[in-house]
């Protein structure tokens, strides 16, 4: 039987190995080294995108667990406009939270940036949502209503390293339609 012209290329055995190496390398990094970067991102996004936080209203004090399932840690986001918090925790130390959003790292990035449809990801089970769904919907709507790219705001927090960070992220990002 002939292969369809638009068939996905077969997965290479190297891809799972590279994902395992990424998780192993990140697992060895002390969270204390990651935390200053996360603090900078939260502060910069709050400063550059106050409309995002204003749109959250009463949900801005909620604790959102962001679970990039292919990384060895989870994040807690408290989108308080006065003191935003984005903190990393080891998977075994999952903190208390009001709502949880889980998916692969790059699916979550594309979701934040409006590249993927959250409803479609939810129904295909590529995205899991637990807890206070009203808070999650409010966060999603705030991101959807935001002008421009959320990722540009995040990358902008790296200052003079924004372009190299963008390059590295682009190099690591799977090709469209292949977010495994």
Give the arrangement of secondary structure elements.
Elements: H1 14-28, H2 31-48, H3 50-56, E1 64-68, E2 73-78, E3 85-90, E4 99-103, H4 105-112, H5 118-123, E5 128-131, H6 133-145, H7 150-156, H8 162-172
Parallel strand pairs: 1-4
Antiparallel strand pairs: 1-2, 2-3, 4-5
Helix pairs in contact: 2-7, 3-6
List the domain count as a whole number: 1
DSSP E strands, number: 5
User: In the CATH scheme, what's the topology name?
Assistant: Nonspecific Lipid-transfer Protein, Chain A
Task: Give the overall shape.
Answer: globular
Q: What string, H for helix and E for strand, traces the elements in order?
A: HHHEEEEHHEHHH
**Sheet with most strands: strand arrangement:** 3-2-1-4-5
Give the count of helical stretches: 8
Give the CATH H-level superfamily. Answer: SCP2 sterol-binding domain
Class of secondary structure makeup:
alpha+beta
- Kindly state the mean pLDDT as a whole number? 76
Major sheet details: 5 strands, mixed
Rg from alpha-carbon coordinates = 17 Å
Distance between the termini: 27 Å
> Which CATH C-level class is it?
Alpha Beta
Which tags fit this structure?
180 residues, alpha+beta, 5 strands, 8 helices, disordered N terminus
Q: What do these coordinates show?
A:
The protein is of the alpha+beta class. It has one domain: 2-Layer Sandwich (Nonspecific Lipid-transfer Protein, Chain A), CATH 3.30.1050. Helices cover 47% and strands 14% of the residues. The protein contains eight helices and five strands. It has helices spanning 14-28, 31-48, 50-56, 105-112, 118-123, 133-145, 150-156, 162-172; strands at 64-68, 73-78, 85-90, 99-103, 128-131. It has a five-stranded mixed sheet. A hairpin with a 4-residue loop joins β1 (64-68) and β2 (73-78). α2 packs across α7 and α3 packs antiparallel against α6. The model is unreliable at 1-10 (pLDDT under 50).
């Amino acid at each position: 039987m002939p292969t369809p012209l638009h068939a996905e290329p077969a997965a290479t055995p190297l891809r799972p190995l590279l994902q395992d190496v990424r998780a192993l390398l990140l697992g060895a990094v002390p969270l204390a080294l990651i935390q200053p970067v996360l603090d900078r991102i939260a502060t910069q996004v709050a400063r550059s995108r106050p409309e995002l936080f204003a749109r959250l209203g009463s949900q801005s004090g909620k604790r959102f667990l962001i679970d990039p399932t292919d990384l060895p840690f989870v994040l807690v986001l408290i989108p308080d406009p006065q003191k935003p918090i984005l903190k990393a925790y080891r998977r075994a130390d999952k903190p208390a939270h009001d709502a949880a959003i889980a998916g692969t790292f790059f699916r979550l990035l594309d979701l934040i940036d409006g590249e993927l449809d959250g409803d479609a990801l939810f129904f295909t089970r590529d995205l899991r949502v637990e807890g206070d769904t009203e808070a999650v919907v409010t966060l999603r709507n705030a991101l959807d209503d935001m002008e421009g790219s959320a990722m540009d705001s995040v990358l902008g927090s790296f200052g003079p390293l924004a372009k190299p960070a963008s390059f590295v992220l682009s190099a690591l990002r799977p090709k469209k339609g292949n977010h495994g």
